[in-house]
């Protein structure tokens, strides 16, 4: 039950992230580079405050109980990793840049294909065994996802497609590394705090090198208050808190389960679009969504994946 709750909340956060990104970038309220920078800074700031309060609470517990064997000190020792921070920055930056250059359907197909291949590939490498029913459910879910996204897909520019692929691989790696964290909150917080080192580098690269490559660069003249607020919400709420919850769910899931449930994100994002942006749902969307959700539910409720004995 805990795994279901954490996973559902995390997926809603991912969908909200997509919504914030679409509102900010599609309507030119802010450029992709500035969006990424504000997103990282706001996530680090929000999680930094929460971590200070959380650490203070844990330390008071240790002093009150006078017991260091209850795992509290182990939680306090979790400070994420540089590799996780690096993949986080790569994911966020490549996604924001490629998002502007790609149609929604094309971007989603490339991103989630890369995520699926990365995480399921790692699951197979770790010898996670799927039943015939699970493989069938996975194929049906992917087919439904392609049917949902293909009508809005277009031939992408090679560079944008490569960037979105890198973004998907980076997110897959970041998700996989969440299985070993002791404190999801502290691991996510320190990962975002480390990512701030990349902010001045991102500014320099954007301003001095990418303009000649035809990619979007920092354009402070187009940064609006609404764009900053959307990027801040994306960072502090959807990314900071959302990724912490995802890291809480990851140890409770198999790599293959964590991969397939993310196919629900575009569906949730579309529903949020209906609620907050008054977008319309089409009959093909309803049909495809029903197929995907049914397949994902079948996959997660069927016989649990297990490791092949070596």
UniProtKB/TrEMBL annotation:
Organism the protein comes from: Psychrobacter alimentarius
**Domain of life of the organism encoding this protein:** Bacteria
The name on file for this protein is Multidrug DMT transporter permease
EamA domain ranges (all copies): 160-298
Give the subcellular location.
Membrane
Span of the secretion signal? Answer: 1-26
Show the coiled coil region(s): none
Instruction: List where the protein spans the membrane.
Output: 36-55, 82-100, 106-125, 132-150, 156-176, 188-208, 228-246, 258-277, 283-301
Q: What PANTHER family would the database entry show?
A: AMINO-ACID METABOLITE EFFLUX PUMP-RELATED (PTHR32322:SF9), INNER MEMBRANE TRANSPORTER (PTHR32322)
Q: Which UniProt keywords apply?
A: Membrane, Signal, Transmembrane, Transmembrane helix
For membrane topology, the record states:
Multi-pass membrane protein
């Amino acid at each position: 039950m805990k795994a279901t709750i954490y996973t559902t909340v995390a997926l809603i956060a991912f969908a909200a992230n997509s919504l914030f990104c679409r509102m900010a970038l599609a309507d030119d309220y802010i450029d992709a580079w500035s969006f990424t920078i504000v997103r990282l800074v706001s996530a680090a700031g929000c999680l930094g405050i929460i971590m200070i309060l959380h650490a203070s609470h844990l330390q008071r517990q240790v002093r009150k109980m006078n017991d260091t064997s209850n795992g509290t000190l182990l939680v306090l020792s979790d400070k994420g990793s540089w590799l996780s921070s690096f993949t986080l920055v790569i994911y966020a930056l490549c996604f924001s840049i490629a998002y502007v250059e790609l149609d929604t359907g094309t971007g989603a197909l490339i991103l989630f294909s890369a995520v699926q291949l990365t995480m399921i590939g790692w699951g197979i490498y770790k010898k996670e065994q799927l039943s015939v029913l699970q493989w069938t459910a996975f194929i049906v879910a992917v087919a439904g996802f392609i049917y949902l996204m293909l009508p809005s897909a277009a031939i992408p520019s090679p560079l944008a497609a490569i960037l979105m692929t890198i973004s998907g691989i980076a997110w897959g790696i970041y998700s996989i590394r969440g299985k070993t964290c002791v404190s999801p909150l502290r691991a996510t917080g320190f990962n975002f705090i480390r990512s701030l080192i990349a902010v001045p580098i991102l500014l320099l690269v954007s301003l001095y090198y990418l303009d000649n490559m035809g990619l979007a660069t920092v354009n402070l003249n187009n940064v609006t208050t609404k764009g900053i607020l959307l990027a801040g919400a994306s960072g502090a709420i959807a990314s900071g808190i959302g990724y912490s919850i995802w890291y809480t769910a990851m140890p409770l899931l198999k790599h293959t389960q964590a991969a397939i449930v993310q196919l629900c994100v575009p569906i949730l994002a579309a529903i949020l679009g209906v609620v907050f942006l008054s977008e319309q749902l089409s009959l093909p969307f309803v049909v495809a969504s029903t197929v995907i959700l049914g397949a994902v539910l079948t996959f997660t409720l069927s016989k649990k994946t297990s490791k092949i004995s070596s």
